[in-house]
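CATEGORY: protein folding

GOAL: derive structure tokens
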Amino acid sequence: MSIEAIKILLVEDQKLMRVGLKSLLEGQNEINVVSEAQSGKEAIEKYKIIHPDVILMDIGLPDISGIEAAKKIIEHNSKAKVVILTSHLSEQEVMDALHAGACAYVMKDINTEYLKMIIKTVKDGAMWLDPQVVPILREKNCGVIPPRQMSRAMFKEQHANLTQREYEVLKLVVDGKSNNEIAQELTISEHTAKAHVCNIIQKLVVDDRTQAAVKALKEGLV
């Protein structure tokens, strides 16, 4: 039985970027860019007509920002799923996008296959944050992620299956460190660091290191 392609509304004001993204995303018939918009207002109108599964939204648009467009779309339909795809990494834009209801905040230098994975998980109801965004949220920690309330003792009691070393690795994952950076900081091999990260992902019952970081922040684990 064939799986129906995910319907995407692509919102990007640069034609070359739109053409490139559409070509990359539609490579294996898993994703179908059903419509494109060059501005925020056009995106809002097209969403109301097309009702795509996911909106892939740039921030810098010629009329209203992608964040404002996302907010208006989500006000129209609270179940709308917006993935912010941008080169912007300002604290204000990250916070505004998440408060507007965006499901994901992704930097444009991301690997294409990873972007496809994000689109699929967002379509299924997940939230995804670029690793570069997590330290901003941890520092800001206002509204999007609840304040940390769990002590280290409580953490150990509720997550006793996480070892002390895995706890140390988790803190570095939350800080946005790569496996290589974790290995250097803890004086272990990169292979060992990767193994610890894999164990953490499995034990926290999440799909990837970013979701592990988000869960750790939301539950006050670090």
Q: What stands out?
A: Residues 142-152 have pLDDT under 50 and may be disordered. The radius of gyration is 19 Å. The CA atoms of residues 132 and 176 lie 6 Å apart. DSSP finds eleven helices and six strands in the chain.
